[in-house]
Amino acid sequence: MLNSRDDILPRYSLKYAVVLVVLLASAVVGVYGFSTLELASMNSATRTILLSVAGMAALTVFTGKPPIILCLGLLACLSVACAQIWPVIVVALFALSCIVLGRWMLRQEASIDWSVHLLVGAGTFGTLTGLAAYLPINYPWLYGALLLTPLILGHRHVTSIGGELLRQIQASRSVQTPLQTGLDVLICSFACLYVLVAFMPEVGHDALAMHLFVPSHLAQRHQWSFDAGTYVWAVMPMLADWIYSIVYMLAGETASRLSNSAFTLLLAWQIRNMTLWAGGSATSARWASLIFLSTPLAFAESSSLHIESAWTAFMMAGTLAILKVSSFTPDPRERLSQLLLAGLLLGFALATKAVTLSVLPVLLVILLLHCKAWAVQGIVKTLLLGSVGLILAGATPYLSAGYLTGNPVFPFFNAIFHSPLWPNINFEPPATFGTGVTWDTLYRMVFKSPQFIEGRVGAAGFQWLLLPTAAVAVLLSGNKKALCILLVGAGSMFTTFHSTAYLRYVFPSFALFSVILALPFSDAKIFPRSLAILAGALLILTNTRFIQAATYYGEINPSALLSKTGRDAYLLERLPIRNMVDTVNALNTGHQPVAVFASPLMAGLHGDALYASWYNLKWKNEFDAAASPSELAQRLRQRQVNWLVIDLKSLPQARLDLLLNVSTSYARLGDVELRKLNDTHYEHLLNPELSSLEGWSLTSPSTYDPSRKILTVNVQTPAIQRVEVTPGLTYINSVSARCATTATAGRIQANWMDEQGNFITTSIETFDCTTQWETHEMNVVAPANATSVIIYASGHTDTPLEFKSLSFRQ
Where are the transmembrane segments (predicted)? Predict the structure, then answer.
């Protein structure tokens, strides 16, 4: 229930009539939209929710315990049944350690919620991991010690948390209405879904290409390369990936996925807190959390290892802190404290996702609108400290990217920064999603969702049909707190959609609008209680039926949950390239780069993945430029590649034929084949048979006879060709020569050069020529710092020699 008399819209007033008109208009639009809608088929996620609701309801009735306690017990049983108890323990210890660390950093202020402590601790741990990633020091023992240190030093706080949890378990269900209990059961049922989907093996594209690739790479190599030439996203803000890396180091893939789901559930708690802060009742707080958890996009964020849930958690906490830096907070000292907290939390958000830069101007406007509230004694010092917190928490990835690539937001805006690692054009998002906000944006988000995300109709959730009514009710109610939340949510969506209309980038707005929806619809003085419950029930049911509309990954497969054999069979059927990664690792014992001509889903690979895509433009261009099998093999060997992963169905036939010509099949899973580069020695020289002079440079007066394809040279007038080499590899340098006039000596010569083109050393062997064509060879090893070699067709004296072929083979 809202706090003040001004927040109430009296029945039958003009304001109330306006709200009803908007509601009726939204209903008409909704009915039309549903008439165009094809009913979604029942999916595994919907079935899981229904089973969870039935089970939770039965347990609640028979035990009399609070649903949340029963939910924790049920999840513990599920973790044992699915053999995931260790990842659950690691994630729980990580959360506890974060809470203790955050409480210590914030000086144990009692007014701050535990969720803020957790986020401050998680952001700090993630920042430290990001810094440690530059060095080869990332081992499980280090992260185990890192997490245990706060728990040991803060053992009293750990004991108090354990005691409080024990009291909650022993307590009976507190006095609450049947509606509140029912809402708790539904919330807990969605929590079961989010945890179960985290127990499933990862099959998501973004996760396997990046968000799980980074933790697995860090665990295997003990450091991250920050090589934007190999992975274009290597220097992007990755605070969430560093957080996932901590638990991955200790408990693997499931722990990372579980921590992602935990952030989504944490968001539901934050939405509850914001609803209560805005004047909502305990019931409206539950409705807000449930609306959010039932949203298909929220489920999509947990169905695969994404970063938006962690990013939104930092954004929500930072936004609430900004809103508290106002006259809403009576104590001026508390306002300044919240300003400091906002700087730190928004810095963590900035280090997680660069889209934060689109939202910060909106929060700055809110802050300026309340400048009278925080313009008090000590504000200069607070602003300085808050700015320092924002910079320390958020600037590291941008400074690193600027130093390593020349572009602090690489690869974006490269038309401005001109990094040599990317073309001098701005990196553009997919044109599929469009830009800007139009009068029908909300309708299209609901009924034409593929225009806004890689999903199906309904991906945005159906609460957007009720948002205009809720927004008008809030505007007319005079609830200033709700108005601020509405302004931040709408402003963030507008500024972000100005760049690209993509739903994942406005996930914080989804959370904020959940609060806006719950405030008026759960207030009996605005809407009749029966109407509000009916609207809420229809919304939750519809969202649940379309729960998988925003993702192609959120399947719940019992056999994959309950046994390793079922898990392997599920991956073999659903995504065989994941099984192929294990095969590659078993064969690629030297951890050499692997050329990948398939989807970039190589998380867990023991070595670098060379993607012939925009992930690695240099390698893509090299591959595209290879016109013959020998040239392609040469480029692969220069990259030290022995193994190739090829999707036989995705490549053009001409490119596929080249790859098949230079390699031999070792294993095949579905359409994905693992092949080994043939051991045949491949020629590095262009025109080794001297069919033309392309590639060769002659010194006058040396001569070339095109009819006979013969070079005539001596020691003063050699012909040369420069080719790239790989340090440490062995090459065979051979020539076919004879005397041009009289007997003399010839030479085989290779001059080694470094990356700057400076001379390193030379390899020379001499031979005596005859009047007959003879072949002479020299085996050489490229020096450690050599990147190229100059091959000579030369005599050893002033007497001329004739050459009909030269070779430089690997």
Answer: 12-33, 45-63, 69-102, 114-135, 141-158, 179-200, 231-251, 340-371, 383-404, 457-476, 505-524
| pLDDT number for residue 301 | 96
Residue ranges in 597-755 assigned as alpha helix (H): 617-625, 629-638, 653-661
Higher pLDDT, 327 or 569: 569
What secondary structure does DSSP assign to 71-100, as a single string?
Answer: HHHHHHHHHHHTT-HHHHHHHHHHHHHHHH
Domain 697-809, CATH class in plain words: mainly beta
**Per-residue pLDDT tens over the stretch 282-312:** 999 999 999 999 999 999 999 999 999 999 9
Q: Is the peptide bond preceding residue 701 cis, with omega within 30 degrees of 0? A: yes
Q: Give the rounded distance of the alpha carbon of 256 from its chain centre.
A: 12
Between strands 609-611 and 594-597, the pairing is parallel
Query: Using one digit for the tens of pLDDT, what is the confidence trace for 260-274?
Result: 999 999 999 999 999
| Per-residue confidence band for 4, with pLDDT thresholds at 50, 70 and 90 | very low
672-677, strands of its sheet edge to edge: 609-611, 594-597, 643-647, 672-677, 663-669
The confidence score (pLDDT) of residue 524 equals 66
Q: 631 is written with which tokens?
A: 């040239």
Provide the residue count of the chain: 810
Cα torsion angle, 403, 409, 410, 412, sign: negative
- pLDDT at residue 549 tops 70: yes
As a whole number, mean pLDDT of residues 578-607 equals 92
Distances (CA, A) of 570 to 186, 198, 563, 585, 621: 29, 15, 11, 20, 36
User: Across-strand partners of 673?
Assistant: 646, 668
Place of tokens 């094809």: 38
Q: Is 532 helix (H, G, I), strand (E, B) or coil?
A: helix
DSSP class of residue 683 equals B
Dihedral (CA of 375, 379, 382, 388) sign: positive
Orientation of helix 114-132 relative to helix 140-153, angle to 10°: 150
CA gap 77, 26 in Å, rounded: 44
Domain assignments of the chain as residue spans, ordered by start: 5-12+45-394+443-545, 575-677, 697-809
Contact partners, residue 572, CB within 8 Å, separation at least 6: 579, 669
Distance of CA 560 to the CA centre of its chain: 24
Pairwise CA distance, residues 598 & 614, whole Å: 13
Distance set, CA 511 to CA 138, 191, 290, 341, 527 (Å): 35, 16, 11, 20, 22
For 111-127, b/e burial (b = at least 16 CB within 10 A) is ebeebbbbbbbbbbbbb
Asked if 580 contacts 198 with a C-beta cutoff of 8 angstroms, the reply is no
**Residue 698 or 246, more confident:** 246
Q: Are 247 and 255 in contact (CB under 8 A)?
A: yes
- Residue 685 makes CB contacts below 8 A (sequence gap 6+) with 695, 721, 723, 791, 806, 807, 808
Using 50, 70 and 90 to split pLDDT, how confident is the model at 12?
A: low
Place of tokens 């949340």: 68
* pLDDT given at position 551: 93
Q: How far apart are CA 720 and CA 683, in angstroms?
A: 16
Condensed to tens digits (0 to 9), the pLDDT of residues 420-430 reads 999 988 877 77
47, two tokens: 């079935």
